[in-house]
Amino acid sequence: MSNSEKKTVGLPMAIFTFIVVAAIMSVGLAILKINTMVTFILALFAVCIIAVCTGMSMEHLQEVILTGFKKFALIGMILISVGMVVGSWMISGIVPSIIYFGLKIFTPASFLAIGFIVCCIVSFFTGSSYAALGTIGVAFMAIGYGMDINPGLVAGMSVSGAIFGDKMSPFSDTTNMAPAASGTGVFEHIKSMLWTITPAFLLSTVLYFIMGLKYNTATEESLQGINDIMNVLDETFNISILLLIVPVLTIIMVAKKVPAMIALMIGAIAGVVAALIAQPQFTFNQVVTAMSAGFSGEFENAAVAKLLNRGGINAMMSTIVYCIFTLELGELMYEMGVLSAILDTFKEKIAKPCNLIIATLISCLATVMLTTSQYMAILLPGEVFQNSYKKAQIAPYVLSRTLEDGGTIFSFLVPWSAAAIYTAGVLGVPTLSYLPYAFLPLICPVCSIICAITGIGVFNTNGKSMRGKMMKKVETAEE
Questions:
Q1: Does residue 307 belong to any structural domain of this protein?
Q2: Does residue 59 lie in a domain region?
Q3: Which of 27, 181, 218, 468 is the 20 to 30 Å CA partner of 373?
C-alpha cells in the first residue's frame, strides 16, 4: 500500500487501542504474571485485529510487521555482538581481571559514586548507552556482586551513567536526532541540555555516594568473601592488567565513530585472541564456543560461578525475541496513526509555555509506552509539537532538550520498551529492580518540569529568558 493509500484511525479508536494495549500489558505482566514474551504476542495480536477491523488489508499488515522486523536488524546484531563480547571477555580473563582489580582498588563506599562517573565518561566518549552497558556495565555488575552490593543499585548506577552519554555525547544518535526533529543545531541542543542534566548529574553523584556509605562498614565475613573470590579468580585465570587493553581499544573504536556493532564484534574477536594467548589452560574449542554458549566453569564458590558463568549469543536470545515483538508493535501503532491522533488532539488544549513543555514530556512517555521505541518518542512528539513551540516563540533547542529529557530517558524506565529489555538482559537485573536506583533518569525529567514552571533555562526564539512568562497564555493552536 502506498503512502497515499495509508489510512489512520480517528481519536476514539486511537484511545481504544491505547486502552487495549495498556490493559494487556498491565494485567498480563503485573497481575496475571504471564510470561513477558507471551504478553507481547497477545498485545501485538490484539492490535493486529484492531488494524484489520479499521480497514488495513492483510497484505499491508504483513508488510508493516516485516518493516518492524527490518528495523530490529541493527539492535539485533548489537545484542548478538554483546553476547559474543561477554562470552569471549569472560574466558579470556578480561572481565575476571577487571573484577580482580576492581575488588582490589574500589572500596564498597566509593564504588557507586566513582562507578557512576566512570560510566558517564565511557558513554559520553562512545556515544552509545548500549555499548557502555554491554562493556563497563557488565564489569561493574560483576564487581558489585563481588562486594555484595544490591544488584538493582549497581544496575541503576550503570544505567544512569549510560544515559548521560546517550543524552550529552555529540556521537550519540539520539543527541543528533532530537535537534534534527526540532529544527536546531547539535551544539545548541547540547548547551541547552546542561540546564537539566547538570543538577541531575550532581544530585545523582551525591545520592550514589550516600548510598555507598551503607556499605562502608564491611563485615569480616564479607571481606573474607571478597578475598575468596579474588583467590579463585587468581587460581582460574592468568590475571593481567595488559588484558584491559582490549576493552579500552573497543571503547576507543566506538568513540572514533566506528559503528557500535562493528566495534563490539572486533572486541569479541580480540577477546578470543587474548584468550588463546593469555589463558592456555582453555582449549581452542572452549574459547570460540564461549562466544556462542558463554563461559561455563566449575567453581565450588557459588559467588564466582554467578559472576563468571554467563555471556554468549544463547544468553541473549530471549532479549532478542522481546525486542522483535516490541519494534513490530511500535511500527504497527505508528502506521495506524494511534499516537498522531492522540497527540494532535492533546496539542490543541495547550495554552501556556509551561504546559507545553510538560505536555511534551508526557507525550514522550506515552509514545515510549505505546511504541516501545526511544526513536519514536523523539521523532513523533517533535513533529507534533514543533509548530506549537514556534507559535509560543520558544527556542527550538528547548523542544529538543525536552524530547531528550523525555524520550531518551523514559525508554530505559518503561519495562517493555526495547531499551529497558536490552538493559535488563545485558545486566541480568529486571527493570523494576533497577528503576528506583536509576537516579539520573528519575531526576532529569523533574528538573525539566522545574525549568518549565520557573522559566529557568527556557529561552524565546530571540535567545531571551522566559522567566515570569511561563504561565501566560499563548495561541498555539491556530494555523
A1: yes
A2: no
A3: 27
Give Cα separations from 102 to 77, 126, 191, 474 (angstroms): 29, 22, 34, 55
Alpha helices in 408-476 (DSSP H): 409-410, 418-427, 431-434, 439-454
The amino acid occupying position 147 is M
CA 211, distance to chain mean position in Å, is 23
More confident residue, 82 or 93: 93
| C-alpha cell at position 52 | 484489520
Lowest mean pLDDT among 123-137, 189-203, 465-479: 465-479
- Helix, strand or coil, per DSSP, at residue 394: strand
Give Cα separations from 371 to 197, 291, 323, 340, 365 (angstroms). 25, 32, 11, 12, 10
C-alpha–C-alpha distance, residues 270 and 152, integer Å: 30
Query: CA-based diameter of the chain, in Å?
Result: 73
- Across 314-440, where does the E strand assignment appear? none
Cβ atoms within 10 Å of 315's Cβ, excluding its own: 21
Domain of residue 262 covers 73-311
Residue 15 lies in a domain: no
Domain count, the chain: 1
User: How far is it, in rounded angstroms, from Cα 36 to Cα 19?
Assistant: 18
Residue 429: its pLDDT value, please?
A: 93
395: in domain? no
All three cell numbers of 340: 498522531
